[in-house]
Amino acid sequence: MSGTSMATPICAGIVALMLQAKPTATPDEIKQALKDGADLWKGRDPNVYGAGYVNAKRAVERLRQG
Question: Where do the domains of the chain lie?
Answer without folding.
Answer: 4-65
